[in-house]
Write a structure and sequence with these properties.
The chain has helices spanning 4-26, 35-67, 75-101, 106-140, 144-158, 164-191. By secondary structure, the chain is mostly helical. It has one domain (4-191): Four Helix Bundle (Hemerythrin (Met), subunit A), CATH 1.20.120.520. The longest helix has 35 residues, at 106-140. It is elongated.
């Protein structure tokens, strides 16, 4: 059985990947970029992916692992932290391009698609590595009590960053993205 805290992190990953799926679909090169959706998806990735999920890892999970003797300055955790920094940099670049998109410049749309594509690719690889690392570490370092303790710590600390109401809105957005992608897939299958 997966440790409760690791299961929580995995559920976050699932919700993030659902939004990435919708983002890739909506940013297909043959379609105009849907600016309202893109803004919402970027807001989700910032608030849920970074402010909420990465916060859990950086402020709770990684320090716990360090307390158990796992090296933070090298190896998988150092890579994860490096990815978090790069993801923030890419997200900031995307946010900087959003106002220019309203001018409907082809060059801006192309640059935006490239930046989003790099972000999505990095985040998918990052999630895959984290899932592997978390499962491995949960088998050796985390028991159920420790997982519950970490979840409790996150619950208390994260309330200062993202309200429960906002978290529910963000999860609703991910659920809507999932439904949209599933409907599109069903529609595509029906056309075959």
């Amino acid at each position: 059985m997966l440790n409760p805290f690791v299961a929580e992190l995995s559920e976050d990953h699932f919700q993030i990947e659902v939004v990435l799926d919708a983002l890739e679909r909506e940013l297909a090169p043959t379609l105009p970029i849907p600016e309202p959706f893109l803004s919402q998806a970027i807001q989700f990735l910032h608030e849920f992916g970074d402010e909420y999920h990465h916060f859990k890892e950086e402020e709770v999970f990684f320090p716990f692992l360090a307390s158990q003797g796992v090296r933070v300055e090298a190896g998988p955790i150092a890579r994860m932290l490096g990815d978090h920094a790069e993801l923030r940099r890419l997200l900031a670049g995307i946010v900087d391009l959003l106002p220019l998109l309203r001018k409907q410049e082809q060059r801006t749309a192309r640059a935006l698609r490239q930046l989003v594509s790099r972000y999505v690719r990095l985040l998918r690889n990052h999630i895959e590595e984290e899932e592997s690392m978390q499962y491995e570490l949960s088998q050796s370092l985390l028991n159920e009590d420790t997982g519950l303790m970490l979840s409790d710590i996150v619950g208390r600390r994260v309330a200062n960053r993202v309200s429960a109401a906002r978290l529910a809105e963000l999860r609703s957005f991910a659920a809507a993205c999932q439904q949209h992608v599933e409907l599109d897939e069903c529609y595509s299958l029906a056309k075959v």
